[in-house]
TrEMBL record:
Domain CHRD: start-end pairs: 29-148
InterPro entries reported for this sequence: CHRD
UniProt key word Metal-binding: no
The protein's name: CHRD domain-containing protein
Residues of the signal peptide: 1-27
Species: Rhodoferax lacus
UniProt KW keywords: Signal
Recorded superkingdom: Bacteria
Lineage of producing organism: Bacteria, Pseudomonadati, Pseudomonadota, Betaproteobacteria, Burkholderiales
């Protein structure tokens, strides 16, 4: 009887540890992403005193990208904001995904990406670009990279 209880207790502990490991593996399906936005990152660079940051997460199972872009110090109101890509730092690309709704700081949103878009984001080939009247081509830019 005692051996059976010990066996059952050990089985329950083993099962609980196994479930914990599964939960840890599922958490690895999410990648944190970041970008530092500045005028110096624009192509060509500008002298904006503004700055900003992207904090985002990408669920690699559902392809859901969720983001918050915060910024301050721009030459005027931000008129539009987008993710651009695919392009490496120092190169320009078209709009890959626009921000919908208000572009006042902080800009929050989410979207489901295609498999190709996920690959580009994870490879660091997307950037955030914020546009103002004084800098219609982009005032603040930051390359989206997996957080370290």
């Amino acid at each position: 009887m005692m051996k059976t209880r010990t066996f059952l207790s050990l089985s329950l502990i083993t099962a609980a540890l196994g479930l914990s490991a599964c939960g840890s593996m599922m958490a690895s399906n999410t990648t944190a992403l970041r970008a530092k936005l500045s005028g110096a990152n624009e192509v060509p660079a500008n002298a904006s005193a503004g700055s900003g940051a992207l904090e985002a997460s990408l669920d690699k199972q559902s392809n859901m990208l969720t983001w918050t872009v915060s910024y301050s110090g721009t030459t005027g109101p931000v008129k539009a904001g987008h993710f651009h890509g695919p392009a490496a730092a120092g190169a320009n690309a078209g709009v890959a995904l626009g921000f919908t709704g208000s572009v006042e700081s902080p800009i929050k949103g989410s979207a489901t990406l295609s498999a190709a878009q996920v690959a580009d984001v994870l490879a660091g080939k997307w950037y955030v670009n914020l546009h103002t009247a004084a800098n219609p081509g982009g005032e603040l830019r930051g390359q989206v990279m997996p957080a370290q």
